[in-house]
Amino acid sequence: MGELLRQYWMPVMQSDELAEPDCAPLRVKLLGEDLIMFRDSSGRVGLLEDHCAHRGASLFFGRNEEDGLRCVYHGWKYDVTGKCVDMPNEPSESNFKDKVRQGAYPCAEYGGMIWTYMGPRSTPPALPKLEWALVPPNQRSLSPVVRECNWVQALEGDIDTAHLYFLHARLNAEEDRGPQNDNGVYHDDRHPRLHLTDTPYGLMYGAQRTEDEDHYYWRITQFMFPIHSLFPPGGFVGVPGHIWVPLDDYNTMVWSVSWNPLEPLARRPQLQGPNWSQFLPATSDGMGRWRSTINKTNDYMIDREAQRTATFTGIPSIPMQDQAVTESMGPIADRTSEHLGTTDATIIQVRRKLINAAKALRDHGTIPPGVDEPDLYAVRSASMILPKDANWIEATQEQLKAFTGLPVATA
User: Fold this and answer.
1) How far is the C-alpha of 242 from the C-alpha of 251, rounded, in Å?
2) CATH code where residue 68 lies
3) Nearest Cα to Cα of residue 194 among 42, 342, 332
4) 15 & 159 share domain
5) Whether residues 277 and 342 fall in one domain
6) Between the CA of residue 383 and those of 224, 236, 386, what are the distances in Å?
7) Where in the sequence is the domain holding 146, given as residue range(s)?
8) Do the domain assignments include residue 410?
9) Dihedrals φ, ψ of 40, to 5°?
10) Is this model's pTM higher than 0.90 or not?
11) What is the CATH number of the domain that holds 257?
12) pLDDT truncated to tens, each residue of the chain (411 aa)?
């Protein structure tokens, strides 16, 4: 599975985390590797292996100067491509530096983020054509948080529509859902009928619920290989989604994205008190940034009185409810002990797709979905109320296309 992931571009951090040329380098953990990211004097971004090719000292302590990162142990200096450009401890006539390279991965800035390609190609594939990355900055929102579990385990929450009106539910149907759905969501029909359809980029499904005698409520979700998901909008005007970036086998950087393709994105008011948008003090560790103040050490701030009287869980905010249950499964869930039902059909199918794509790459060299087809990622999710006799795919096909000039489809 690791080789499959390396076929794709991965987002690493927001561009403004490396705010200016020659700023301090940062430790990064990505796909289980310890790496160092820096922005050189010309503004280019480099991602290097942590340990200097000379004697293995960490380049985190390096001097970021004059278009390169210089190891403080003996002064060896590397540019953003990993080329050794200076060996001041070697004789001036030596050409040894021309024979040494530091491990490095190419980077690109796209959609306000720094991305890297860790795969085998000397020329990386094109970046995916994601609508949120191409709208103006004031029309999108990005927010990260570290989740302490495997990336597939975390991702599966987005493709599990059945949990919506349990885990995220309010108890009082008449109550307002709140500015960030923080009071919880509600629907009378809590047993969706799933309609799955294969796509060239992964999978799309419609979750059908009875709205009234003549209509169904449809929630349409996209899974895009291998780490992107778009879930149905609700509660605000904007397309929401996640990018599930594996830091290692047991930790995931969850990038929450939302965007309005037509106009500036309305900023949602922050909840009061400890909440998912507040973070513990950052450390210099490769996984030391973007850790929530609400976490397993404080039982995710569960409020048992609120659980009894207001919301199904008593845990504040939808993101923290998801984090609590996926982390509670353990760092890697034991799938052999699961008992999957009909509403788990999407999870079953996505697992099968990921495994089959990884095997096809390993056994036959088959390029996984979307790697060389960036336009496939130009899609949206939707939530719509349709007449019962409507074909949900035909009725929503235009609303599900990105870059159409249509507003977001929100029931």
Assistant:
1) 15
2) 2.102.10.10
3) 342
4) no
5) yes
6) 18, 12, 10
7) 131-396
8) no
9) -85, 180
10) yes
11) 3.90.380
12) 999 999 999 999 999 999 999 999 999 999 999 999 999 999 999 999 999 999 999 999 999 999 999 999 999 999 999 999 999 999 989 999 999 999 999 999 999 999 999 999 999 999 999 999 999 999 999 999 999 999 999 999 999 999 999 999 999 988 887 766 768 898 998 999 999 999 999 999 999 999 999 999 999 999 999 999 999 998 666 899 999 999 999 999 999 999 999 999 876 544 444 344 589 999 999 999 999 999 999 999 999 999 999 999 999 999 999 999 999 999 999 999 999 999 999 999 999 999 999 999 999 999 999 999 999 999 999 999 999 999 999 999 999 999 999 999 988
